[in-house]
Design brief:
The protein has 265 residues and is α/β, with parallel strands linked by helices. The protein has ten helices and 13 strands. It has two domains: 117 residues, NAD(P)-binding Rossmann-like Domain (Rossmann fold, 3-Layer(aba) Sandwich), CATH 3.40.50; 120 residues, Dihydrodipicolinate Reductase, domain 2. Helix 1 packs across helix 10. The protein is globular, with a radius of gyration of 19 Å.
């Protein structure tokens, strides 16, 4: 039985806990969050865990940690855990698009003998893309298509009138690094596509606001020595946050189960 540390207990963290709260292989949940939320979170955990405001307040060493708190947690909290030898699953993959973050995490892993796991989120085909990379890739493209409401509160609102769109509108074209940096709440998948294949600066990204979109659609196309790949997922939006696909939370839960299972899929 394992002790799991959740970094962040917002909508995504709560979703993960709800998916796995009855899994008998998890003996205890630890949650790292803001001081003013600790009593509320501890009550939600219902006697099967504890919420704390800082790593130094943990009363037990977790077997592994799961980040679902955003880019700041990846840069400030995750390196500390890795240096302490605590394997960590990271959901906010877009943080690795920022300068030196990937190198700092790699160094922390080396210092602590820990392993960092990046989750594919709402993307499919990441396993095939990463496998094909070893034999050479010529082109990788990611296209994100979402309803206008899913882009509200982002830079997209400055580039087009999201409330008045009559047809699908491309508001961003560039690299995976640029997409993940400019749209951190929406484009973690762009960073994952880049890191898995040609890299953040050679992977091309197109982001689209489409009033006819029924959900959040993620498409990866790639060419290389392996042949050609095209994978598309139309994911329902996460009810608590339409900027995120519901599949993203399921992907994190799967990564946790892979830490608990004897068979890894």
């Amino acid at each position: 039985m394992k002790t799991v540390l959740l970094i962040g207990f917002g909508a995504m963290g709560r979703s993960i806990f709800d998916q796995l709260r009855h899994d008998p292989r998890v003996a205890r949940w630890l949650v790292l969050d803001r001081p003013e939320r600790l009593d509320e979170i501890t009550a939600t955990l219902g006697g099967c865990g504890l919420a704390v405001a800082g790593i130094e307040d943990l009363n037990a060493r977790p077997d592994f940690a799961v980040e679902c708190a955003g880019h700041g947690a990846v840069t400030n909290v995750v390196p500390v855990l890795l240096r302490r030898g605590i394997d960590t699953i990271v959901a906010s993959v877009g943080a690795l698009a920022h300068h030196d973050v990937a190198q700092r995490l790699d160094q922390a892993c080396s210092e602590g003998g820990a392993q960092l796991t990046l989750v594919p989120g709402a993307l499919a085909g990441i396993d095939a893309l990463a496998a094909a990379r070893a034999c050479g890739l010529d082109e990788v493209r990611y296209t994100g298509r979402k309803p206008p409401r899913s882009w509200k509160g982002t830079l997209a609102a400055e580039r087009c009138d999201l409330d008045a769109l009559a047809r699908a509108t491309v508001f961003f074209e560039g690299t995976a690094r640029e997409a993940a940096t400019l749209f951190p709440q929406n484009a973690n998948v762009a960073a994952m596509a880049g890191l898995s294949g040609l890299g953040l600066d050679r992977t091309r990204v197109q982001l689209i606001a489409d009033p006819e979109a029924g959900g959040n659609t993620h498409t990866i196309t790639a060419r290389g020595a392996f042949g050609r790949l095209e994978v598309e997922v139309e994911a329902a939006p996460f009810a608590a946050n339409p900027k995120t696909s519901a599949l993203a939370g399921m992907s994190i839960a799967r990564a946790i189960r892979n830490r608990l299972d004897t068979f890894i899929l």
